[in-house]
Write a sequence for this structure.
C-alpha cells in the first residue's frame, strides 16, 4: 500500500487558507501573516506560476445582486456583524495603502502590485492562497472587480485613481462609517409597508421592495452636490405620461439665463416655451436676458422623447418640489458619478418601475403603459393605492452574505475622515433644495 505524501509546511498553509477563506474578511486577517511567510519561503518571483491559473476557482468572492432590502432587519444584523469584524481589523492595525499615480492592470509587475495584493487580502477581496506576488494576474483582476463592485465603481478590473482613492481610505474611517450608518439603518428597521420604494442617495440607486424582498433594482441619477436630493419619507401618488416640464425658478436663474446669454436660440432649439402671468405665450426676444427679468415668467418644455423628464414623471408628496422621472439623457446611467440633477431622481428602466407602482391600479398593465407613452398625449393616472417612498442617505452597509458596501459621502453628511470634510445637518441638507415650480 502506497504511503501518503508528506505535505510541505508552505503547502499546508495554503491549503488551510483555501479552506478558511469562506470566512471572508476575518479569515483574510488571520492568514495574511502566514501568506507573507509563504511568499518569503519560496521567493516572490516563484509566485508567477499563478499565470497558468484561472480566477474562477473562487466564485464565492464574486458579488451577486442582493435580494435583501437595504432597509431591513437583515441588513441591520449584517451591518452589526460588519462593525464587529472591522473593529477586529482596526485592532490588528487596519490595512496598508496602495501607491497612486500609475494605473495597474493585468500584466503589471511592481511593488505597487504587491501592496495591492496585501490591501485586497486584508479586506477579504483576494484569497490569501493567491499569494504575494508583484505580478497583476487574473486573481488580482477578479479581486479588484469585487472591490470596485463593493464601492460603486465600474468593474473594470483596472486600478486607476478613483479605485486607489477608495483603497486608501483607512480602516478606522470605514469602521466609523459603518457605525454611523448603522444608526440610520436602525431607524428604518420597523414596518415600512408590504410594498415600498427605497432611494439611496449616495449610492444613486433605487429598490422596489415587495413582501420583504427586493423586486427590482434601478440605477438612478440624483441631486448635484450644490442641489441636493432631500432625505424624506413620502408616498408615490400619481403618474404623468408624456409630461410637460415646468422649469424651477432656481434652474431659470442658474441655467436658462446664462444659456440664453450665450445662445439666443437655446429655448427654441430645446422646445421650451415662455408664458406670462396671464398664461399667454411670449417670444424669447421680448425678455432682457442680461437681467433677472426672466424669473417673472413660466418656462415650459414640450412633452416628447427629448423632454428633460423623459416620457414619465412619478409624483411624490413633499414640500421640496422634487419627484422621480425618466430622462432623455440615459447615458448618465452608465457613469459611476451620477450626481447630476437639481434634486429630483432620474430612473433607469422607468417603465418597469411604473408598471410595478401601477400593478394594483385597474386597467394599467404594461401594455397599457406602453400604449399611453406611444400616444404622445399627456395622460395622468392616480395610483389606486399610494406606495411608501423613502429617500435615504446610507454610505455603508452589509448584506447577509457578508458583503460590505461603501459609497462616497458625497454630501459630506457623515462628518469625519477622508470621505467627508464637514458636518451638515438634515435641515441644512434639505434647505439646499429650493422648492421647484410644480408641473401644471
Amino acid at each position: 500500500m502506497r504511503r501518503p505524501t508528506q505535505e510541505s509546511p508552505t503547502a499546508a498553509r495554503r491549503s488551510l487558507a483555501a479552506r478558511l477563506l469562506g470566512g471572508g474578511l476575518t479569515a483574510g486577517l488571520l492568514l495574511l501573516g502566514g501568506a507573507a511567510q509563504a511568499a518569503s519561503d519560496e521567493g516572490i518571483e516563484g509566485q508567477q506560476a499563478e499565470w497558468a491559473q484561472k480566477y474562477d476557482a473562487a466564485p464565492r468572492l464574486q458579488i451577486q445582486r442582493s435580494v435583501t432590502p437595504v432597509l431591513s432587519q437583515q441588513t441591520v444584523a449584517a451591518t452589526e456583524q460588519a462593525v464587529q469584524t472591522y473593529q477586529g481589523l482596526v485592532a490588528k492595525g487596519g490595512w496598508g495603502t496602495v501607491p497612486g499615480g500609475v494605473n495597474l492592470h493585468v500584466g503589471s509587475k511592481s511593488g505597487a502590485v504587491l501592496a495591492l495584493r496585501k490591501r485586497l487580502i486584508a479586506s477579504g477581496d483576494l484569497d490569501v492562497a493567491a499569494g504575494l506576488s508583484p505580478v497583476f494576474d487574473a486573481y488580482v483582476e477578479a479581486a479588484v472587480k469585487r472591490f470596485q463592485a463593493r464601492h460603486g465603481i465600474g468593474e473594470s478590473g483596472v486600478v486607476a485613481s478613483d479605485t486607489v482613492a477608495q483603497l486608501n481610505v483607512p480602516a478606522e474611517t470605514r469602521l466609523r462609517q459603518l457605525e454611523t450608518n448603522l444608526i440610520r439603518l436602525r431607524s428604518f428597521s420597523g414596518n415600512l409597508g408590504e410594498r415600498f420604494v427605497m432611494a439611496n442617495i449616495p449610492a444613486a440607486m433605487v429598490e422596489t421592495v415587495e413582501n420583504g424582498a427586493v423586486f427590482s433594482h434601478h440605477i438612478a441619477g440624483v441631486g448635484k452636490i450644490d442641489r441636493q436630493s432631500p432625505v424624506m419619507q413620502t408616498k408615490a401618488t400619481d403618474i404623468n405620461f408624456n409630461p410637460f416640464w415646468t422649469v424651477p425658478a432656481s434652474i431659470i436663474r442658474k441655467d436658462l439665463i446664462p444659456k440664453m446669454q450665450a445662445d439666443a436660440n437655446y429655448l427654441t432649439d430645446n422646445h421650451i416655451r415662455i408664458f406670462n402671468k396671464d398664461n399667454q405665450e411670449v417670444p424669447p426676444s421680448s425678455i432682457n436676458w442680461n437681467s433677472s427679468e426672466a424669473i417673472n415668467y413660466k418656462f415650459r418644455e414640450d412633452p416628447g422623447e427629448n423632454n428633460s423628464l423623459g416620457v414619465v414623471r412619478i409624483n411624490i408628496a413633499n414640500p421640496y418640489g422634487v419627484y422621480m422621472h425618466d430622462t432623455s439623457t440615459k447615458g448618465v446611467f452608465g457613469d459611476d458619478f451620477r450626481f447630476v440633477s437639481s434634486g429630483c431622481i432620474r430612473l433607469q428602466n422607468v417603465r418597469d418601475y411604473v408598471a410595478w407602482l401601477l400593478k394594483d391600479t385597474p386597467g394599467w398593465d404594461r401594455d397599457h403603459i406602453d400604449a399611453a407613452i406611444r400616444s404622445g398625449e399627456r395622460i395622468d393616472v392616480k395610483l389606486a393605492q399610494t406606495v411608501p417612498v423613502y429617500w435615504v442617505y446610507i454610505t455603508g452597509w452589509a448584506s447577509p452574505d457578508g458583503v460590505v458596501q461603501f459609497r462616497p459621502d458625497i454630501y459630506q453628511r457623515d462628518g469625519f475622515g477622508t470621505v467627508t470634510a464637514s458636518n451638515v445637518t438634515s435641515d441644512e441638507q434639505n434647505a439646499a433644495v429650493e422648492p421647484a415650480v410644480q408641473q401644471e
Residues 73-91 form the longest helix (19 residues). The chain is about 30% helix and 20% strand. The radius of gyration is 26 Å.
